[in-house]
């Protein structure tokens, strides 16, 4: 009898989601508290597969782990360890019962943020989830309770109209990859520097974002992608940075470029095309093992002679600037070991 009661409660939850999740907002604390404390039952004693079949209002393919359709993968004990929910109406709250779920990919499907305030959802998923992907759905605010998901290694929230990231992001001590591109972010919290395992950060296509200076001093960041924003200055003091892409921004000053990647001998790839750079610092010679430098579509009319000392530079792009032909010829003559696009 008990499983039947629990299943009924789950069905009621799903019904509630269909009716009112769309209009739920953080100020609706009363509704949230009711759902949090009264409506969420203990998980029934079904297997994960049976729970899906009983409570999910759509079919899940267990014979495929494709990221392009709704599917799931189980381990040898029948526990669901990865799930892709693609282009469904909403994510069922009964997913809270999957205690071995490592990877969750939700795309084109409503993912109510209040789930992050449901104790069972936080308790079960935070203990196992290492990869969370949310794409092509409205997810305007990352809840503060994300701090509980300390096992997360990859967090992707893209094309979600995300407006803000909480300070608690800094408590994700295992986070290695963070992708927040195609959103509406205007700032990055200063606590981002505490994500000591973070090596890859993609913040591209956030048109309101004007500064990424909160990243300054991050000890392990290796790849930073910040294309198509409104950023005016490059970051500083990123000792492990190897790949930097800041195309189509409003950068005019790169004088601190020598503070990037100075803690590693790995080859550097820096791309600043489509900015407003008028002057390249002589300290370019101090960039360790600079291999690729793209300065296309800027406002340069001269390069410092110091760039001739950068013997590691293999590829240099300087097209669509303000160089005279004579200047370009001089650059090519003095950099015979560098392939130059001018």
TrEMBL record:
Gene Ontology CC entries for this record: cytoplasm
Annotated signal sequence range: 1-18
Keyword Signal assigned: yes
Alphabetical UniProt keywords: Leucine-rich repeat, Repeat, Signal
Nucleotide-binding is among the record's keywords: no
PANTHER family: LEUCINE-RICH REPEAT-CONTAINING PROTEIN (PTHR48051:SF54), PTHR48051
Protein name as catalogued: Uncharacterized protein
Source organism: Adineta ricciae (Rotifer)
């Amino acid at each position: 009898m008990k499983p039947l009661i629990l299943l009924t409660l789950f069905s009621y939850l799903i019904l509630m989601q269909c009716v009112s999740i769309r209009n739920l907002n953080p100020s609706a604390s009363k509704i949230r508290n009711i759902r949090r404390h009264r409506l969420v039952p203990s998980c029934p004693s079904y297997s994960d597969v049976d729970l899906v079949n009983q409570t999910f209002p759509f079919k899940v393919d267990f014979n495929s782990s494709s990221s392009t359709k709704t599917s799931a993968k189980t381990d040898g004990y029948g526990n669901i360890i990865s799930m892709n929910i693609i282009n469904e109406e909403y994510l069922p709250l009964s997913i809270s019962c999957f205690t071995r779920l490592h990877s969750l990919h939700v795309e084109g499907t409503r993912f109510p943020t209040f789930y992050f305030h449901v104790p069972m959802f936080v308790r079960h998923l935070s203990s196992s989830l290492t990869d969370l992907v949310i794409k092509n759905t409205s997810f305007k605010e990352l809840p503060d309770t994300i701090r509980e998901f300390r096992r997360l290694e990859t967090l992707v929230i893209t094309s979600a109209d995300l407006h803000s990231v909480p300070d608690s992001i800094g408590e994700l001590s295992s986070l290695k990859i963070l992708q927040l591109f195609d959103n509406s972010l205007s700032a990055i919290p200063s606590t981002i520097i505490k994500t000591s395992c973070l090596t890859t950060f993609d913040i591209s296509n956030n048109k309101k974002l004007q500064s990424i200076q909160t990243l300054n001093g991050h000890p392990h960041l290796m790849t930073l992608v910040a294309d198509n924003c409104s950023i005016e200055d490059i970051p500083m003091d990123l000792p492990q940075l190897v790949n930097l892409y800041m195309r189509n921004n409003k950068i005019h000053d790169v004088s601190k470029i020598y503070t990037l990647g100075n803690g590693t001998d790995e080859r550097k790839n820096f791309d600043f095309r489509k900015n407003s750079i008028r002057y390249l610092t002589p300290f370019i010679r101090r960039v360790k093992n600079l291999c690729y430098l793209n300065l296309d579509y800027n406002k340069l009319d001269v390069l410092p002679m110091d760039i001739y000392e950068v013997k590691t530079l293999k590829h240099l792009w300087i097209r669509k600037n303000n160089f005279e032909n004579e200047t370009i010829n001089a650059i090519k003559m003095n950099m015979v070991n560098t392939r130059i696009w001018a």
